[in-house]
Every structure is written in structure tokens, then in C-alpha cells.
Amino acid sequence: MAVAASGYLRIGATDVDAWMEFGTGVLGLMDAERDDANGARYLRMDDHPFRMMIEAADSDGLIATGLEFATEEDWQRCCAAVANAGHAVTPGTNEEAKRRAVTAFATTQDPSGNTIELYWGRELDYTPLVSPQGVPAFVTTYQQTGDLGFGHLVLPAAEFDATSDFYTEIIGTGITDVLYPPGMEGAKIHFMHANNPRQHSVALFNNPHPLGVVHIMVEVENMDEVGRAMDRAKAAGSHFLATLGRHINDNMCSVYLLAPGGIAVEFGCEGLLIDPETHVATVSTEGDLWGHEYSFPGLND
User: Fold this and answer.
1) pLDDT tens, position by position, 63-117
2) Boundaries of each VOC domain copy (predicted)?
């Protein structure tokens, strides 16, 4: 196992201020207040300098996913394996690495065209996290096992088999669960864990998505924090993409909200932890134990 965690996201936004207001006012993330020559804004969840970089863009959507490696040797081996498999690998400059607060990184694309930034050596920020909404902590670490990453994300993968092989055979994830979503003929999702106990750090959905990401997930410590976020979202007029519910495969009790620009954000608690060395992959034909009634704008109106 090579990849340690899903470390950060670069998100393109046509309205950066609205995304920041949602991130701080609804999700309860902290404005990192980092200087950036390109005008990006940053959201913190923990002692990492940021977990989300919000960048001005002509269209809304995911720009890139930062995947973290524990050591320089792991990172170098992965970059070499990606290149040897025929994928372009572009090293980042020192200036670009500094912007991401990493020691070094390289950019590539998976077979479905998702942009991935492979990195190692994150420079931590030891300024205490102060959530503007009083969230005590976000779930990004576990006991002595270390970093769990920012949460998880589900990427679109039109070239499903090749993309799944890319992550499992080259990047170093392991399949945790295979879901055949009910009511969606031909749909399939691979949930994949990194080298940490989070049930999945990355998942692949075998269909395209106009925003380049199906959803991202932020986890808090308990149901009260989910409830408070629901109250904040209602007060802010955020669209609830899904009502409160609990997933079967990762046990997450969550709601889904639409961020400005349309990216779906799952906000939940009680996510399942596994042993990444011994976990046996499961197959699911139901997505939820209960709840999660979906309301898609334009479809349910």
C-alpha cells in the first residue's frame, strides 16, 4: 500500500466569496487567510495549512485532488510507476509546491481524465483551529495511526475498469466495497481505502459528471454537530440534496448539501474505520440503512 490519504482538494468557483461563506458559515471550516498571488482562498480543518483551495474559475467544479504519500520514497516509486504505465507525469515547480505547502508534488491524470496531484511532505500549521461555527474538531486523524485525510471524494470514471486498475495497481488503494446502486441500471461504484483506517478515501462512479466530482465528504465527531450544520444550512438557504440518512457500507450518518456552483458535500459522522491491511472487500446492493431521500434541482421541482 502506497498512498496515505486524500490530502486536499483544489476547487474552481465562479463565486469564490460565496464558496468561502458556505465553507465557513455552513460547514464550519476555518478561513486559513493565506496569501496567494493568484487570489485563491483556503479552508482549514486541522493542522494542515488547508484542505480545500478555492480558486476563481470560469466554471464551477473540481480542479484537482491532492493524494498524500507518507515518505519521499513512496512518492517517487508511485510517480515512476505512473510514468512506466504510460501516463504523463509533470513535476511541480518549487513555487507551485510552496503554494500547496508541500515539499514536492507531480501532476497526472487518471484514465478518465481526473487530475491528480501526487505529493509528500506537507508543511503543517500549528496555529490552533478555530471554527467560526464552534465545531470542536473535524475527523481527519485517528489515534496513533495518523492522518485520515480531509475526508473522501467520489470521482466520475467513464473509463471505469482502466481507472479502477490505475488506483488499485499503481496509486496503491485497496477496494473496500463494490456498490450496485438500486434503481440505477448498470451503475457501479468502487469504494477504495488508502493506507489508513477510513473506510474509503476515494470512490469511482462509472459515469461522467459535469463538475468533475460526484461528491466530497466532511466528517465531524458526533450527530449534534451534524444537526447544527443542518440548522445552519437551512438558515443560509442551502439546497439539501439528500435528507439525513445512514449508509450501509461505511456507516456514515449524513446529509448532502449543494455548495455554491453545485458540488455536492456530504456532511456526516460515525464513519466506519477498518484495518487496511486485513479488510476483505464487500459487495453491496443497497446504499442506505435508512433515509437519504434525494432531491435533485430541476428534477424534483
Assistant:
1) 999 999 999 999 999 999 999 999 999 999 999 999 999 999 999 999 999 999 9
2) 5-121, 149-270
The CATH number for 160's domain is 3.10.180.10
Cβ atoms of 205 and 167 within 8 Å: the answer is: no
Number of domains present in the structure of the chain: 1
Furthest CA-CA distance within the chain: 52
Structural domain includes residue 97: yes
Full domain range(s) for residue 184: 3-291
- For residue 250, being part of any structural domain is answered with yes
**How does residue 143 score in pLDDT terms, banded at 50, 70 and 90?**
confident
Q: Where are the beta strands (DSSP E) in 150-271?
A: 152-156, 174-179, 189-193, 202-205, 215-219, 240-247, 253-258, 264-269
**Contact indicator for 38, 142 with CB cutoff of 8 Å:** no
Q: How far does Cα 235 stand from its chain's mean position? A: 25
Residue 164 and residue 219 in contact, taking contact as beta carbons nearer than 8 Å: no
Say if 216 falls within a structural domain: yes
Residues in the chain: 301
Cell 459515469 -> residue:
207
Cα dihedral value 85, 87, 92, 97, nearest 10? -70
Strand partners, 17: none
pLDDT bin (cut points 50, 70, 90) of residue 224 is very high
